[in-house]
Design brief:
The chain has two domains: 3-125, Rossmann fold, CATH 3.40.50; 156-210, Orthogonal Bundle (Arc Repressor Mutant, subunit A), CATH 1.10.10. The chain has helices at residues 12-22, 37-47, 63-73, 91-96, 109-120, 128-138, 156-166, 171-178, 182-196, 201-210, and strands at residues 3-8, 28-34, 51-55, 78-83, 102-104. Strands 2-1-3-4-5 form a five-stranded parallel β-sheet, sandwiched between helices. The protein contains ten helices and five strands. Residues 4-120 form the Response regulatory domain. This is DNA-binding response regulator. Residues 147-212 form the HTH luxR-type domain. Keywords: DNA-binding, Phosphoprotein, Transcription, Transcription regulation.
């Protein structure tokens, strides 16, 4: 099936560049473009795309607020934040708003296309190494630290798995660390996603941080 994408960025040149990249992939279609966060929310409401590529910094309604609205109104629509990684302090906040990952504006062509396909398939965009960097860079930013999240219904073993996932380990690495099979590690991740209501693996990282199982230093 063709992945339908909405591009949301207040810079027409950025949107045009992304469209040119996406047009090279017959499996992805640009369903619409928005120049503001509010326009993006309206387009999603009307078009119900599979993925929104959302710039963080836009006038009036920024990408974080728009992402919060999109994920609330259209849970099946996945959001990829568009950012300049070394400058934006809002990446972590955007993930809390429901985004499934991020694109860096100078990413390679094949990485942008792969990211859209990965997120459209329901997976997290962030590779384990990028997840670790993200936590180190943004988890300690001056956003009020919430009270440690309760993990009702999560078993002791699942807490161990959640801690390792929060540190950026893959299923194979978790299996090796805990001396369990890859299938068992995958089953624990699936159970955690269901119990914690997490959209994807990125949001398991956030859950681990909120529960106090992982800190930036770890």
């Amino acid at each position: 099936m063709t992945v339908r994408v909405v591009l949301a960025d207040d810079q027409p040149l950025i949107r045009a560049g992304l469209r040119m990249v996406i047009d090279t992939d017959p499996g992805i279609e640009v369903a619409g473009e928005a120049g503001t966060g509010a326009e993006a929310v309206q387009l999603v409401r009307r078009l119900r795309p599979d993925v929104v590529v959302m710039d963080i910094r836009m006038p009036a309604m920024d990408g974080i607020e728009a992402t919060r609205a999109v994920t609330a109104e259209s849970p099946a629509t996945r959001v990829i934040m568009l950012t300049t990684f070394d400058e934006d302090a809002n990446v972590y906040a955007s993930l809390r708003a429901g985004a499934s990952g991020f694109l860096v504006k100078d990413m390679a062509l094949e990485d942008i296309l792969a990211a859209v396909h990965v997120v459209a398939a329901g997976d997290a965009l962030l590779a384990p190494g990028v997840t670790r960097r993200l936590i180190e860079e943004f988890a300690g930013r001056p956003e009020p630290r919430p009270r440690p999240r309760e993990l009702a219904g999560v078993t002791a073993r699942e807490r161990e798995v959640l801690t390792l996932a929060g540190r950026g380990l893959s299923n194979a690495e978790i299996a090796a660390h805990l001396h369990i099979s890859h299938g068992t590690a995958k089953a624990h991740i699936a159970s955690l996603l269901a119990k914690l209501g997490a959209r994807d693996r990125v949001h398991l990282v956030i859950a681990a941080y909120d529960a106090g199982l992982v800190t930036p230093a770890s």
